[in-house]
Write a structure and sequence with these properties.
Blueprint (H helix, E strand, L loop, with lengths): L6 E6 L8 H10 L3 E6 L3 H4 L2 H8 L18 H4 L3 E7 L1 H9 L5 H8 L3 E6 L3 H5 L1 H12 L3 E2 L3 E4 L5 E5 L3 H13 L22 H4 L9 E6 L4 E2 L5 E2 L6 H12 L3 E6 L11 E4 L3 H11 L5 E4 L6 E3 L9 H4 L7 E3 L3 H6 L6 E8 L3 H11 L4 E6 L11 E8 L4 E8 H20 L3
Parallel strand pairs: 1-2, 1-3, 3-4, 4-5, 8-11, 8-13, 11-12, 13-16, 16-17
Antiparallel strand pairs: 6-7, 9-10, 14-15, 17-18, 18-19
The chain binds cytidine-5'-monophosphate.
């Protein structure tokens, strides 16, 4: 059951090979996947909607205007781990390349926050046509994975490339891709094309899915410790770095939970957010998820102390006069608890330091039993706390030090998640 907890959306278009979809769906479900389907009008002429609904146990999305929210062109793919368009006709491939969204399958492709895989199926002359080849190249550069069609007998009576891969082959490919095991065949092998200058690379548009199959929990933002019903102790953390990390992790194919303190930031698409206020709430939220994650990144600026006693009525000057003493007690260190847990996820902490950063970072890495620590020099203006940019240094347990130079937090987050995923995979022995 390698696809357990995986949501796969299959977009079915009007190629004869649509008759292979029921078998393909059955095979994905057999591996534990939750499969949802979108169909074009032409697809419904070739395979019955009722069959697909009976197999998936979900309504088929086929009408952009009439669909309820969860199977609308945005809702359908928003929680998906993978969007598979099979069969993908020459016509649909051309629409995808141009960004046309005129039916449920193409509209869902435009809004899909997850990896998109297409299995082309068509007559070999249509497949060989420079227009189709150029469209496939465009999709490939955008990071769409193309399952190359096989060479063989075609429904039109001709022989040549254009035959959709068999359901068993596609299911095996999808299973390997999502469970991060060896792929059964090479994707993206198109017909040889003359070299043309290209401005955009797939890397720029869609990062490598080096987080696929990994479950990541990220803490972000400040915490709030109540003093009385109207007052709190908090800090200047904006949460932007943690949210950028969550987005970068999701874009790399990981399943991401974001435990966020009180910030007004939009949750990145496809990320599940757990909102908390106090350090204790954050501790409980992390602890509850600990058994079901592979990586924990502690990016939150957690309050080190809380009130020993929270006043249930507003403190007044009349009552307390010229001075007021509050007693604070220490909060549990969340990332240290994670680092010392067993079984233990790959654990990454942050160190926001104003001086002796190098020394403090190395000491915290040891004391909190972390795999990596990310040093943030918060004494420099324009980076770190409440800024748009950051520059960090990453330390690992073997003494390796990696600098990530000053850049927008989204770019720093992208580099950081690449380092974290590569190190976590190496630690698991699946590099
Ligand atoms: O010890 P210091 O607060 O500098 O350590 C910072 C790191 O520890 C960050 O990763 C932060 O998210 C984490 N931390 C925590 N729980 C606390 C205090 C800090 O997880 N109570």
């Amino acid at each position: 059951m390698q696809l357990e907890h995986r949501r796969i959306v299959i977009g079915i278009t009007g190629g004869i090979a649509a008759y292979k979809c029921p078998q393909l769906i059955r095979l994905l479900i057999k591996q534990g996947a939750d499969v949802w389907a979108a169909m074009t009008e032409n697809a419904e002429k070739l395979v019955s909607k009722a069959t697909i609904e009976a197999l998936t146990h979900h309504p088929v999305a086929d009408d952009i205007f009439a669909a309820p929210e969860d199977i609308g062109h945005i809702g359908l793919v928003s929680k998906a781990d993978l969007y598979l368009i099979a069969p993908a006709t020459a016509n649909t491939i051309a629409k995808l390349a141009a960004g046309i969204a005129d039916n449920m399958v193409t509209a869902a492709a435009l809004s899909a926050p997850c990896r998109t895989v297409i299995a082309p199926a068509m007559n070999s002359r249509m497949y060989r046509h420079p227009a189709t080849q150029a469209n496939l190249e465009t999709l490939k550069e955008r990071g769409v994975i193309i399952i190359p069609p096989a060479d063989g007998d075609l429904a039109c009576g001709e022989t040549g490339p254009g035959r959709m891969r068999e359901p068993e082959e596609i299911a095996a490919y999808i299973t390997a891709l999502l469970s991060h095991t060896a792929l059964p065949f090479a994707e993206n092998t198109l017909l040889p094309q003359p070299e043309a200058p290209r401005e955009l690379t797939a890397q720029k548009l869609l990062p490598k899915a080096n987080g696929a199959g990994l479950r990541v929990l990220i803490t972000a933002g400040p915490t709030e410790e109540p003093i009385d019903p109207v007052r709190i102790i908090t800090n200047r953390s904006s949460g932007r770095m943690g949210f950028a990390l969550a987005q970068a992790a999701r874009e790399r194919g990981a399943e991401v939970a974001l435990v966020a303190g009180p910030v007004h930031l939009q949750t990145p698409a496809g990320v599940s957010r757990i909102s908390v206020k106090t350090a204790q709430d954050m501790y409980d939220a992390v602890k509850a998820k600990l058994d079901s994650v592979d990586i924990v990144v502690g990016c939150a600026a957690v309050s080190d102390y809380r009130l020993a006693y929270v006043y249930d009525q507003k403190l007044t000057k009349e009552e307390h006069g010229d001075s007021l003493t509050l007693t604070l007690i220490k909060n549990e260190d969340i990332i240290s608890m994670v680092g010392h847990s067993s079984p233990r996820p790959f654990t990454v902490g942050f160190a926001a330091e104003t001086h002796d950063g190098d020394k403090h970072a190395r000491e915290k890495l040891q004391r909190k039993n972390l795999d990596l620590i990310v040093l943030n020099d918060v004494s420099q203006s324009g980076i770190g706390f409440n800024s748009d940019e950051n520059a960090v240094t990453v330390y690992d347990r073997d003494g390796k030090v990696t600098e990530i130079g000053r850049a927008p937090k989204s770019a720093v987050a992208a580099s950081l998640m690449n380092i974290i995923f590569d190190a976590a995979r190496a630690a698991k022995g699946t590099a």
